[in-house]
């Protein structure tokens, strides 16, 4: 695939693109991944591409919801502790039992939770409503069959009456054969996988989780756990973005920081293409002398540029933080690549606005963006915002009161504030000051 957008030339390189324009171009170049058949556990987090119907009813037979005795209702009518119904126990019915005893008049069968209701029985009385076959008072439980095999015979005293179908799970009471189990577009989590297994599906057709490779750039970056030298900082962006990619539903591969050398970055990107459905770089997209991402990525795209070749576009967006952005495709398969700025908050906000939707689009989801709500600003003073820029401020949202409070300042390097935020407060391009009590859009990150 190739990006709609051409490389920046002339006046296009100087114009400010809106957030919406850039996102539209990104999504226009994304195509959902081809469906594959996966084993159930391998399909966790994936999106169904077809409706799944129920082949057999659940449960497939009437079964007991309690440990107790399967009885005929007429035999326990009027039973009480003073005048218990005395029934002959004809055997055990355990979960998985194939051969079932027939319960006749004056008879009962010990039955375990999940075991099929035997012929003739109309209800189940819990063991706590009986003496458990001991001849004493109310039983607290049953003696294990392995310890007292003779417990499946003898007599049991029932102290309470039971209505028809009491403590019986009816066949098909969960789902009926032919019902829609899961619709196409469903994301498979643990409950959905449980349902698929319960109806006998061993595999399912889904779009696979996208493979996202994250690279951070900068000669000043040191891996956490190593010692810092003068002028160096720890690489946090690649960890943040790899974690964010996983949170979005992708399989993330984090590549250690790449030095500010165009040839090294170019070869690293080419090496990673074999395992990437989407590439994300962070840093090196501004106008500094050592911002080599433009040079490297333009070269990689040009190497396979043709009638349908890869192209890279570097833009300035009317947003804060995250003004410099890059997007295009690279490599022989035209793998999408998003180049994000290097400041930690800028890169994370850019991920939420552009990369997360791209990942969700690769998964085949219709709703690709985070949910947003309207909230009332709760602050000590007005919040300023640059004219003509859409500003994204870190916030703490209170769903009980419908209010949001700023967390930290507007600086794009303030990682600590980001760690304590659960939302992004959106200040529109035409607003330069937002007073306490004003209503605004809030993007929920949790």
Based on CA atoms alone, the radius of gyration comes out at: 32 Å
Average of pLDDT:
89
Shape by Cα distribution:
elongated
Strand line-up in the sheet with most strands? 1-19-21-22-18-14-17
**How many DSSP helices?**
8
Counting DSSP E segments of at least 2 residues, the number of strands comes to 29
Biggest β-sheet: count, sense, barrel?
Answer: 7 strands, mixed
Sum up the structure in keywords:
446 residues, alpha/beta, seven-stranded mixed β-sheet, 8 helices, 29 strands, disordered N terminus
Verbal overview:
- By secondary structure, the protein is α/β, with parallel strands linked by helices.
- A hairpin with a 4-residue loop joins strand 21 (324-330) and strand 22 (335-340).
- The protein is 18% helix and 28% strand.
- Residues 1-11 have low confidence and may be disordered.
- The relative contact order is 0.13.
